[in-house]
Amino acid sequence: MDLLDQIALCIEKGKINSQSKIPSDLIGKDGVEELIYKLLQLNTPPNKIIEDGLLKGMTEVGNKFRDGKIFIPNVLFSAKAMNHALEILKKEFPAYQLNTKGKVILATVKGDLHNIGKNLVKMILEGNGWQVIDLGVDVDSDKIIQTLKETEAKAVGLSALLTTTMLNMKSIIQDLRNAGITLPVAIGGAPVTQKFAEEINADLYSPDPSGFLDYLNKNLN
Amino acid sequence: MNSKEIFNYTAKFDEVVKKESYFENLLLQEFSSEILREYFPELFNLLKQKSKIQIGYSFFNSDVVKTLPNKIKIENQTFEIGKIIYRSLKDTESVFIITCTIGEEVEKSIWKFFNDGFSVEGYILDKMASELVELSADFISEIIEKKISKSGQSISNRYSPGYCGWSVSEQQKLFSLLPENFCGIKLTSSSLMIPIKSISGIIAAGDNITKKEYECEICEEKFCYKKRTQ
Fold this sequence. Notes:
The structure holds two protein chains of two kinds. Chain A is α/β, with parallel strands linked by helices. Chain A has helices spanning about 5-15, 30-40, 45-65, 70-90, 115-125, 140-150, 165-180, 195-200, 210-220, and strands spanning about 105-110, 130-135, 155-160, 185-190, 205. Chain A contains nine helices and five strands. In chain A, β4 (about 185-190), α8 (about 195-200) and β5 (about 205) form a beta-alpha-beta unit. The longest helix of chain A is centred in the first third of the chain and has 21 residues, at about 45-65. The relative contact order of chain A is 0.12. In chain B, the strands form three sheets. Chain B has a five-stranded antiparallel β-sheet with strand order 1-2-6-10-7, sandwiched between helices. In chain B, strands 3-4-5 form a three-stranded antiparallel β-sheet, covered by helices on one side. A two-stranded antiparallel sheet of chain B has the order 8-9. Helices cover about 40% and strands about 25% of the residues of chain B. Chain B is built from eight helices and ten strands.
């Protein structure tokens, strides 16, 4: 296995460095930290490390999460390893600008304060090269519209956990359309369904972060 | 009991969390034992150190409580509780409006973890904090149950705005029946409680009120996240 494949595997397993105790089957072995420095010694360009190593690993994470082969804790550890890798690259190449595919706004809708699902989407999108503007929880239409005016976001993702608050997705989409905003709006969250997405004219429903990522990569990259 | 009675109490962590292993067992459903060994002890101590548990209730007796189809009236406020909750509360004689919180400091620690890139720690602490506020609500339910059982009556499950078809916007009415800043909880304009890790709701009491073994048994809501996790 070459170093780039190894680093992709370390992202997938959430292996930060040789000292990391998690995962236990890789104790003592190189993590993303050691592998990045080995790759840099071989003059591997940072964009190659990112695209052929880190992003490859995160794509696998997204796919396995979608397919139910890994669970939330695995995604968290992968995101942690990914952040660590990017920090090293930023330190070694202060002037290097990470290529981003574009900006995406994420928000948990008004009346709802559940942020774990949204945070997972954020990790998967960021780990795959999208810049996320996280508006947090209990977010109303005005805040989204204002942020869209101030940024060049390409899409909006809305999250809700409760059957009573997912109804606010409808009014947010209506407000965005009334304000002349035609950007795609994706919705997700435990009670949300494809049927509901169609009823409220959302552009996409996805039961997992990968569905939203695939949509962004395919249509807006 | 008087027509209206207020109870407010700052609970000790150990009163609410009877066994430390409760959290470990809960987390083991999702995390491997190797992850828990690495993270649990420190996060449990942080939770214990940062949480400030406040619980309370306001009691309303039968003079000021009335049920109507899919509604319950308490003093001058009529709550649209919907058919799911109404089925369990239609024989209500008296009502306790309950609140509890674990304070703001734990939430700040959770956000700090996420903002600093420590998402694993943030996620685990968030899970424990959510469970702690549920345990706090269970604790106040136990206090109420002991009190009410003396008169031979029973209590219902607790029901909260935002769940089982009861709109979260009705928090405003609920809090209008409580003293200002009760348990240190405030409402935002969109009816969310600050501190975030707080619970509000009602518990009914009466001769013909029963507690369901599992509250989802009474609910026909198809898309609720609780149904999806069963």
